[in-house]
Amino acid sequence: MGTKEDVRSRLNIAEVIGEYVQLTPAGKGRLKGLCPFHKEKSPSFQVDTEQGYFYCFGCKAGGDVFSFVQRTENLSFGDALRKLAEKAGVQVEAKYGEKSSRDLYDVNAFALSYFREHLPGPALDYLKRRGLSDETIAAFELGYAPEGWDGLLKLARTRGVSERQLLEAGLLIENPENGRVYDRFRGRVMFPIRDHLGRLVGFGGRVLDDSKPKYLNTPETEAFKKGELLYGLDKARTRLKAESELVVVEGYMDVITMHQHGFTGAVASLGTALTAEHATLLERLGVSKIRLMFDSDEAGRKATLTGLDQVIGTRFEVSAHRIAGGKDAADVLMEFGGDSIKAALKDGVTEVHVRYQNAAAKFNSNTPEGKRAILMELLPRMMINESLDFTNAPATNLRRIVAHELDISEERLRDWIDSKAKRKALSDTHLLAMSNSRQEEDRELALLKQLLVDPKLLAKLDGSMPWRNEAVRKVMLAAQGARTQEDILDVFRGQPEEQLLIRLMFEGRDSGTISKAHSQQYEQKVNAYAAAAVDDIQVTLSIDSMRSEVDFLKKQVVSATPTEQLGLLKQIQELQRAIEAEKRGRRGHA
């Protein structure tokens, strides 16, 4: 039998790690790449081929080839040793007392063959009635645990499998009163449960009638930890190479039927909510979007998202979807086919929308105090964790929603979030500075001020500007054809707008103590400035309008079909080109 050193001597650490990390030269005997244990944009992970060790300068992870495989595959040392020994062509024997999951996998494989042999009969008829094909039944290795107390136990005794092994694998139950052992699974359709690496870690069993419990799983063992497992992930992970999205459904049959109909990204949790352990695994596998498809109404979907583990919510784009009629995925697919699932996947409630709605329901978003409270409550979820790379999408999407709903500038919102000093006390001044409406209204007032300097500049406006400020809108309408300030003022004598116009007239022509000799020259300069200012402000308002339209189209892209997305993206590109053209034109006239 070989030893740990025999295995190490036959393996090149760079080749082993290179199967997980893309490595490039980093000096003599060293290679570098992006660390597989934390998200990063520039490589801080290095491998020393001469010493046989790896180290990450970012997260401080380090070790030899065995510890690398242990961390990457979530294995015990014994399992990592055997995995690498198999790769190196060396046979090793576990030390006495060493904990290993290998025996559990082998015992589960023995049980699976027993369950598969007993499938023909009522269990197979049940699966056929549920619409499963022979190919699907074989692919998911479905079986049946027959009635009787000791069928598996009797077979195990003839095959050299001990009671202790069956008990450790959760396949037997021991009566604490008399010490009698008997089969855990009886009279149930059996669903083998494999981890993301395809290792057989346990089973789920479903009754054929209405007896309780309807479902029964393997208990927690060294190999079976339901808070870390997702049924179907071993098959769904192959799809993750092309798409980074998973659909989480409720049960085993839902997963299997979804896969049979082409929805190969379907998985199911084992009776638990998605956990932080799930998040760590899925992030490592490259998942960025999670769609929850449960049998629940609108309130249920929102409750599901509200109660979602914070780690899941911050690392993935999550949405909840409901199939029409409230049925589960397996029944709907058998009755209506895949179109119903496609429709459900298009119509969902996003986790970030629910987060905003929950905050907005507590506070009045029409008041500064309410806006401040909403922003402060959502601040932790809007802050971007630079180490998460692509999974910054939830924070980015929430910022976009908040900016739209509260009518504030997304850019100025980002500046506030990124400024630790400003976050300590969100003042009315900060809120006012973030407001879209105030910014645009200020520009409109600035434009009106310049038009009062020289009303003839009204001819520069094309009449298509949508005014936010009601006073500006009234003045612009009344000023058509006016030649002097007095013509405009006469329209508003005694009206509330009169005081505004007088103030703007004084601000536009503040000559101070200029002498008569220089007054004509001053007037020429003021008029020239007014003409230039009108051009500049009008361009800025035009750019603001186009940017708002770009933001609106980007929101539509998220829920659009692929064909619709192409059209929307084309519109966005055209608007962005127009914005750049406006900017160049403004610089050219500067």
Notable traits:
52% helix; DNA_primase_core_N_sf; 5-stranded antiparallel sheet; alpha+beta; DNA replication; 590 residues
Structure notes:
With 590 residues, this protein is of the alpha+beta class. Helix content is 52%, strand content 11%. The chain has 28 helices and 17 strands. The strands form four sheets. It has a six-stranded mixed beta sheet with strand order 12-14-13-15-16-17, sandwiched between helices. A five-stranded antiparallel beta sheet has the order 1-2-3-4-5. Strands 6-9-10-11 form a four-stranded antiparallel beta sheet, with helices on one face. The chain is elongated. The termini are far apart.
The gross shape turns out to be elongated
N-to-C CA distance: 82 Å
Helix content: 40-55%
The profile of the biggest β sheet is:
6 strands, mixed
Contiguous runs where pLDDT drops below 50 for at least 5 residues: 509-534
* Largest sheet: spatial strand order: 12-14-13-15-16-17
The tally of beta strands, per DSSP, is 17
Rg estimate, integer Å: 34 Å
Beta-strand percent range: 5-15%
Which class best fits the helix and strand makeup?
alpha+beta
The number of helical elements comes to 28
State mean pLDDT (0 to 100 scale). 80
Pfam family, one: Zn_ribbon_DnaG
Keywords: DNA replication, DNA-binding, DNA-directed RNA polymerase, Magnesium, Metal-binding, Nucleotidyltransferase, Primosome, Transcription, Transferase, Zinc, Zinc-finger
Catalytic activity: ssDNA + n NTP = ssDNA/pppN(pN)n-1 hybrid + (n-1) diphosphate
Function: RNA polymerase that catalyzes the synthesis of short RNA molecules used as primers for DNA polymerase during DNA replication.
